[in-house]
Amino acid sequence: MKVISNSISIDGKWMSVKPHHKTIVDVAKDNGIGIPAPCYLQGRKHGCCNGCVILIADEEKYACTIKPRNGLEIVFNTPDLKELRKERFRLYKEPLKVAKN
């Protein structure tokens, strides 16, 4: 593993962290990786939708709540995480439908 100075890895791809990157979501977006994070992008409480679930050292974390740190290795795109996101978004959308009525 070769760590580039001031960089993180998402699914094995190393990318530079810029000063304007506040979270993992920001780094991913600037590198063409779309981590779903509607709560973050819509100005809601970060982490409330659970859509940006990632793994760091085999622990579930939320990309919209994690500041990028040099050498951080993130797992994002696995079948299990995709299924988990799908289920969490299903649950997240239900209260929104009710609130609109």
Number of strands: 5
Round the mean pLDDT to the nearest integer and report it.
Answer: 85
Instruction: Return the CATH class.
Output: Alpha Beta
Question: With helices defined by DSSP (H or I, 4 residues minimum), what is the helix count?
Answer: 3
Distance between the termini: 52 Å
Strand order of the largest sheet: 2-1-5-3-4
- Using the coordinates shown, work out and report the CATH topology: Ubiquitin-like (UB roll)
Number of domains: 1
Q: Determine the fraction of residues in helical runs and give it as a percent range.
A: 25-40%
Largest sheet descriptor: 5 strands, mixed
SSE topology string: EEHHEEEH
What structural class do helix, strand and pairing data support? alpha+beta
